[in-house]
Design goal:
With 300 residues, this protein is an alpha/beta fold. Helices cover 41% and strands 21% of the residues.
Length: 300
Amino acid sequence: MKLDQLKVLRAVVETGSVKLAAESLNRTQPAISQALKALEFQSGAALFDRSGYRLELTPVGQRVYLQSLRVLSEADDLAQLIRHFEQGQEETMTIAIDAAADLDIMTPVLNGLQSRFADTRVVLRSEVLSGAIEAVASGAAALAVAPAIHVLLEEAGFDYMPLAGSVMRNVAAPSLLAAMNAPRRLADLRRFHQIIARDSGQASGLFDRELGVQKGQRRWYVSDLSMKKQLLVAGLGWGRLPGHMIADEMAQGKLRDIVVPDTHLNFDINIFAFRQRKPITGPVAAYLWDAFAERAHPSA
């Protein structure tokens, strides 16, 4: 029994078909089928019920699959440990940063990182909505700084700490507010374009819907919050942005809060640092986590 066969089994179960498993593993369908047949031969029993449209695990297959997940997880941990010992100080450190997070939270930590580990290349990934959580969950980023809620971080199995609070403000340019003519209900905003930042992740779970977007709402999409702010200032639409990002525009009167009676369009968010639970960390990742811990705010 080989690890490659167990990876094939996992891919077939997760995708539900040999074809999709082949695509996900960049293999041919015959190669996938051969790996399954070899695994079934070694197991001495059929692992899949092939009578339906979608492959379903047999009782024996279910037990083999669950055990294979544990074996693959241990193999991944071992591979990570070997890489850790080979590399020592990390060559590259990737940090996912949500576009709504205030970079002022991070700059003292990054200054220390640069002075202590000058030879480590640092990659700062800009993410939106579920992108930061996905980057950490997949291992693409060692840690992230992003708005989140406790339950999502708990469900993802992350270590996390609150760093700061912020406010998402629903704003528009004065010219657009004048055209809105003192809206009385949220429905009054539908005919004015809402500017929405696209999710940089796969938008699963809580993110698998457009929060704060009404049915029938006219909308434009952008890929980052800087572009969104430019469009809002130009009067091309309305939308939410973090307070720190638009403080100057609010002070200068370029943007104003949208006020709808008896409706709270603004809302508080908490910014967290988070990482995979009990990771095998090198000195750079350990420093980053400890540095954020020194600046954590339990009340955030």
